[in-house]
């Protein structure tokens, strides 16, 4: 019986930006017209190992010197656009990548290959053989990288030269030519159909109709593009600035958000709470967070943060020794003010579950609607914090009970259970893709990534919840992990890198 073809999940990672003349972007383009260009690498998840299409560059000076005839302005790249930082969002490093697919040997597509020491490197046979012909004289390829493949036994062993056809389950190779003599496209099976990354033979989405202006063989361009259009259900062009808007497919009106983690204090939690089946009284540091979800027009708050830190600490002393440590400037109103958010103007406060450290500051939001899972509220209504209960009694319209449904465009409630019967997460559409705020269903990345579920009265519910989380997204925000602020510098999640 053949293995099921994976539904791969693709993440375009913007790796820098520049501008070029339209005469280089398109055959017959106007040299006076200037076109925005972005650099991308593509992370592919859902297989046996993480994979990449192209690996980007680090040596900007060499790239800008070598491509100065084409670049209208030099390529710029901020630290947040480095491959290392962007893989870190997923808890990965280049050494975790098992397969790299090279579209062609130009500098900006292969310069970082040395960092991917454990990857099999797939390349179209035609690209490699033509680039290395005649002792590499006149080659378009990256000299240092080609020299390593030619002379270093370890590099030679990792190189896989591909012909057209299926090269891994759900991955197909197409040797197109056009941009370079052996330019190669790779297509991946996804839930949205076959998605192709054709390298610079289709540099911009508009190149599907107007051929790219930088090419090795003009006659190959049109049949190459025809192959791409015939074989692909969706095309991710290598330098298209709108890739993160266009992918993944979503309703056109869906707003894309950024999320910011606001540090609200910390505490030490015993392992027998953090992990199911643990009896260890050792502790790990938990951060408390308030999350801001913004789309340019609206700011939504997820979790209110803890108001009565002393009361919460007293009630949890057995398994949170020492209680919550919180400076005055880490209290929710002060955090919001520093972000330019007036609590009076917040319209929606989303609550993952009704434990005090997640909702007891709701009275700081006098005009907001509190969004809670229906089952969570019905099972907790007799134990609500008195101040919050009084606020809901005086403002019945302030309570919105939900199940699995869209709360606002681009923000969806996801019932999970596990930590409490009505625990829910929130799936947020961001520029990088869907991001799930898990609440206490996942305290730490280790819970999900090492498959160590949290301590729960219903461990089977947790296993079902973790399976559901994995089916929804690869980007999660655990409720209390200090690593959130390391994986996402500045606590900014899902935004396009900006200078």
Main attributes of the structure:
499 residues; alpha/beta; Metallo-beta-lactamase, Chain A; 2 domains; 7-stranded mixed beta sheet; 18 helices; 24 strands; 24% helix
Structure write-up:
The chain is an alpha/beta fold and about 500 residues long. The chain is about 25% helix and about 25% strand. It has a seven-stranded mixed beta sheet with strand order 4-1-2-3-5-6-7. The radius of gyration is 25 Å and the shape is elongated. The chain starts with 8 loop residues before the first strand and ends in a 6-residue tail after the last strand.
Write a short abstract of this structure.
This protein has 499 residues and is an alpha/beta fold.
Calculate the mean pLDDT score and round it: 96
* Total of domains: 2
Strand ordering within the main sheet: 4-1-2-3-5-6-7
CATH homologous superfamily heading of the largest domain? Ribonuclease Z/Hydroxyacylglutathione hydrolase-like
Describe the main β-sheet briefly.
Answer: 7 strands, mixed
**Low-confidence regions:** none
Could you outline the blueprint of secondary structure elements for this entry?
Elements: E1 9-21, H1 22-25, E2 34-45, E3 51-53, H2 60-66, E4 71-76, H3 83-88, E5 99-102, H4 107-110, E6 120-124, H5 125-131, H6 143-151, H7 153-158, E7 159-162, E8 165-168, E9 171-175, E10 184-190, E11 193-197, H8 218-231, E12 234-235, H9 243-246, E13 258-270, H10 271-274, E14 283-294, E15 299-302, H11 309-315, H12 332-338, E16 348-350, H13 356-359, E17 369-373, H14 374-380, H15 386-394, E18 399-402, E19 405-408, E20 411-415, E21 424-430, E22 433-437, H16 445-449, H17 459-472, E23 475-477, H18 484-487, E24 492-493
Parallel strand pairs: 3-5, 5-6, 6-7, 11-12, 15-16, 16-17, 17-18, 22-23
Antiparallel strand pairs: 1-2, 1-4, 2-3, 8-9, 9-10, 10-11, 13-14, 13-24, 14-15, 19-20, 20-21, 21-22
């Amino acid at each position: 019986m053949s293995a099921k073809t994976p539904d791969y999940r693709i993440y375009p990672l913007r790796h820098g930006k520049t501008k070029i003349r339209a005469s280089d972007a398109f055959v017959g383009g106007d040299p006076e017209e200037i076109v925005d260009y972005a650099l991308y690498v593509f992370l592919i998840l859902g297989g046996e190992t993480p994979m990449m299409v192209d690996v980007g560059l680090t040596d900007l000076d060499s790239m800008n010197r070598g491509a100065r005839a084409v670049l209208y302005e030099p390529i710029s790249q901020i630290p947040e656009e480095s491959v290392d930082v962007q893989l870190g969002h997923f808890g990965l490093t280049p050494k975790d990548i098992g397969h790299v697919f090279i579209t062609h040997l130009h500098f900006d597509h292969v310069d970082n290959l040395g960092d991917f020491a454990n990857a099999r490197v797939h390349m179209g046979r035609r690209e490699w053989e033509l680039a290395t012909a005649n002792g590499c004289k006149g080659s378009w390829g990256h000299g240092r990288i080609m020299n390593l493949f030619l002379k270093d036994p370890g590099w030679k062993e990792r190189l896989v030269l591909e012909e057209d056809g299926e090269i891994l389950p759900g991955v197909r190779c197409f040797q197109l030519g056009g941009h370079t003599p052996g330019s190669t496209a790779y297509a991946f099976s996804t839930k949205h159909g076959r998605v192709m990354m054709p390298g610079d033979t289709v540099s911009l989405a508009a190149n599907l109709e107007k051929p790219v202006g930088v090419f090795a063989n003009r006659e190959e361009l049109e049949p190459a593009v025809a192959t791409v259009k015939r074989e692909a259900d969706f095309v991710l062009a290598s330098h298209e600035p709108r890739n993160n808007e266009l992918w993944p497919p979503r309703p056109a009106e869906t707003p894309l958000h950024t999320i910011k983690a606001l540090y609200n204090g910390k505490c030490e939690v015993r392992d027998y709470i953090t992990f199911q089946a643990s009896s260890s009284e050792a502790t790990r540091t938990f951060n408390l967070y308030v999350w801001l979800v913004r789309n340019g027009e609206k700011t939504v708050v997820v979790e209110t943060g803890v108001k009565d830190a002393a009361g919460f600490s007293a009630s949890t002393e057995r398994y949170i020794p020492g209680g919550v440590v919180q400076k005055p400037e880490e209290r929710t109103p002060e955090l919001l003010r520093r972000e330019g958010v007036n609590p009076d103007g917040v319209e929606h406060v989303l609550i993952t579950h009704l434990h005090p450290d997640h909702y007891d500051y709701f009275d700081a939001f006098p005009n907001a609607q509190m969004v809670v899972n229906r089952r969570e509220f019905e099972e907790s209504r007799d134990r609500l914090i008195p101040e919050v209960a009084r606020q809901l009694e005086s403002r019945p319209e302030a309570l919105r009970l939900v199940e699995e449904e869209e709360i606002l465009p681009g923000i969806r409630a996801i019932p999970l259970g596990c930590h409490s019967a009505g625990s829910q997460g929130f799936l947020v559409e961001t520029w990088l893709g869907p991001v799930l705020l898990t609440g206490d269903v996942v305290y730490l990345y280790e819970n999900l990534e090492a498959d160590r579920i949290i301590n729960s009265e219903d461990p089977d519910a947790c296993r079902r919840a973790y399976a559901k989380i994995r089916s929804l997204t690869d980007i999660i925000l655990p409720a209390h992990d200090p690593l959130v602020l390391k994986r996402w510098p500045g606590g900014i999640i899902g935004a396009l890198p900006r200078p």
